[in-house]
């Protein structure tokens, strides 16, 4: 399969500081105001271009708030003043974990730019979650304004990510990886993507014949507010599937060797009328924005993005960009955050209609992963391994590598058995008729011939009798009408007889035995009699011409 890997961070923090200077300043101010945290009075680098004014009014419009006693009063972080909260309150977590004062919670308020009375306050179970969500919201607003080519340069290159690579016992390099840019994870690299027409394969299971890579993480260059974990993410997928690394990616730990064993399973579901799945997604009225084979996740994300463009007038940054649309940013779309949260709330509650439109795929491939972790490098081999890897990095790195900057990854097949799961109908027409005949034979000693005879007696014979009666009535009616037309009066008989007792009634059907006995004899012919027997056959004929001697003697006496 294809193996996609990326950093947990979309871009190098050192390269993004000029774009994030105002946002970082506001975040540090929030930590100092709410929690008394301060990292010193270090100077914040400011850019001389348009990004110097990225914050300003924007942070004043959506500041962090400290809500007191679950009341409608909140303290504004930016101005330090208290203000009344209008609108609904949405708790992003099930429980409330307070910050500072036991009765205070952290959140932010979003209002409709066209109607200031339409507002919503979003609170969180922890100040960490509130600050991260608030930071991510502003981060997407800033990144939406940066061109794609610039973001690809700010992110990690293949040379930055890969230190060593082996596949099936042979060495590999960045030429075996295909790059694509993910909005939330930056540059991602797919091994064995198949874009060049060649798909690599292995004929032996085991870790020695799989993919082995050492990744350079560079923990010191991570954004401290955007992500709080260090490492890499990996996802195993088919070449025709889109890697949703943010949803189902597996995280790889630094200073450890992660072994991932795979089992391949191919599944096939029955379509209509047995299930509501779709074969190719062509019958789903949602445009596929990912240019990959259909899946339920692709349909849901594409449906939400379409609703975002229709309702808010711009596209959400984390999803692919539809044709003719542009990503939301506060300068061009000042109402997009309030619109996005309202729309996302409907999506989660299944009120947007996407869950009703999108269907599961009838056929799909799945790789079940088994993960194991070991300490790497070991204490006795740490010194020489880090020295050799630092030397391999060469002039690209001006410092000695630390083991927390590295992650060892192995992806391999545990066995080469392919598991196939398919659905078959429990009852078909043939099975239904077979079961019906078996039950009739078991409980009523009835077979198919018996059923045919019953149908013949009750339906065919009954129909023939009715049709015969109707034919006789019609024929009699026609004869009576014909006689009335010729002017001959009908002859009255002393005793009116009907049916087979009437000799006038001539039936073309052959008579039965009983009706033949009741038929009248012809008047001009004698009664038939039994002919006398031919007694001439009983006469004695002379068998011998001469009399035998013994008979002569007897006659003489």
From TrEMBL:
Entry keyword Transmembrane helix: yes
GO MF annotation list: ligand-gated sodium channel activity
Region (Disordered): 479-501
Gene3D superfamilies the record matches: Acid-sensing ion channels like domains, YojJ-like
PROSITE patterns found in the cross-reference section: ASC
Annotated Gene Ontology cellular component terms: apical plasma membrane; sodium channel complex
Record key words, sorted: Cell membrane, Disulfide bond, Ion channel, Ion transport, Membrane, Sodium, Sodium channel, Sodium transport, Transmembrane, Transmembrane helix, Transport
Topology versus the membrane: Multi-pass membrane protein
Entry keyword annotation includes Phosphoprotein: no
Chemical reaction(s) catalysed: Na(+)(in) = Na(+)(out)
Domain of life of the native organism: Eukaryota
Major localization class: membrane
InterPro entries named among the record's database cross-references: ENaC, ENaC_chordates, ENaC_CS
Compartment(s): Apical cell membrane
The family this protein is said to belong to: Belongs to the amiloride-sensitive sodium channel (TC 1.A.6) family. SCNN1G subfamily.
Protein's recorded name: SCNNG protein
């Amino acid at each position: 399969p294809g193996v996609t890997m990326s950093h947990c961070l979309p871009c190098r923090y050192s390269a993004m500081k000029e774009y994030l200077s105002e946002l970082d300043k506001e975040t540090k101010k929030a930590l100092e105001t709410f929690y008394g945290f301060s990292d010193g009075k270090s100077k914040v680098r400011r850019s001389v271009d348009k990004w110097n004014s990225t914050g300003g009014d924007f942070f004043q419009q959506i500041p962090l708030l400290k809500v007191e006693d679950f009341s409608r009063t909140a303290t504004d972080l930016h101005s330090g003043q208290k203000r009344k909260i209008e609108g609904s309150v949405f708790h992003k977590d099930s429980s409330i974990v307070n910050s500072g004062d036991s009765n205070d919670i952290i959140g932010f308020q979003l209002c409709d730019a066209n109607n200031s009375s339409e507002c919503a306050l979003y609170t969180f179970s922890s100040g960490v979650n509130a600050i991260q969500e608030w930071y991510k919201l502003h981060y997407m607003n800033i990144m939406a304004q940066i061109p794609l080519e610039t973001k690809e340069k700010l992110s990690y290159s293949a040379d930055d990510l890969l230190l060593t690579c082996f596949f099936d016992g042979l060495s590999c390099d960045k030429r075996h990886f295909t790059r694509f840019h993910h909005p939330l994870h930056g540059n991602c690299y797919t091994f064995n993507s198949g874009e060049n027409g060649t798909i690599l394969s292995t004929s032996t299971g085991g870790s020695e014949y799989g993919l082995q890579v050492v990744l350079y993480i560079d923990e010191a260059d991570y954004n401290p507010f955007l992500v709080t974990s260090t490492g890499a993410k990996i996802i195993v997928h088919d070449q025709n599937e889109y890697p949703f690394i943010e949803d189902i990616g597996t995280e790889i730990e630094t200073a450890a060797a992660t072994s991932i064993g795979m089992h391949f399973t191919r599944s096939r579901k029955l379509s209509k009328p047995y299930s509501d799945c779709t074969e190719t997604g062509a019958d789903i009225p949602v445009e596929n924005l990912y240019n990959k084979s259909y899946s339920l996740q692709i349909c849901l994300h594409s449906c939400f993005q379409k609703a975002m463009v229709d309702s808010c007038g711009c596209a959400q940054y984390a999803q692919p960009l539809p044709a003719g649309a542009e990503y939301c940013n506060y300068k061009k779309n000042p109402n997009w955050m309030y619109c996005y949260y309202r729309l996302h709330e409907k999506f989660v509650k299944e009120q947007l209609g996407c869950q009703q439109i999108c269907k599961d795929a009838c056929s799909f491939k799945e790789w079940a992963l088994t993960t194991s972790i070991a300490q790497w490098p070991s204490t006795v081999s740490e010194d020489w391994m880090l020295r050799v890897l630092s030397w391999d990095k060469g002039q690209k790195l001006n410092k000695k590598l630390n083991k927390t900057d590295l992650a060892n990854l192995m992806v391999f097949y545990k066995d080469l058995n392919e598991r196939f799961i398919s659905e078959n109908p429990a009852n078909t027409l043939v099975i239904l008729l077979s079961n019906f005949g078996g039950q009739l034979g078991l409980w009523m000693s009835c077979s198919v011939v018996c059923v045919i005879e019953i149908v013949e007696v009750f339906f065919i014979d009954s129909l023939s009798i009715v049709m015969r009666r109707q034919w006789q009535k019609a024929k009699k009616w026609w004869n009576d009408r014909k006689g009335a037309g010729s002017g001959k009066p009908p002859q009255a008989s002393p005793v009116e007889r009907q049916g087979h007792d009437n000799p006038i009634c001539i039936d073309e059907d052959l008579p039965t035995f009983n009706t033949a006995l009741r038929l009248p004899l012809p008047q001009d012919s004698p009664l038939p009699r039994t002919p006398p027997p031919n007694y001439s056959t009983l006469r004695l004929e002379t068998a011998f011409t001469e009399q035998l001697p013994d008979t002569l003697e007897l006659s003489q006496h």
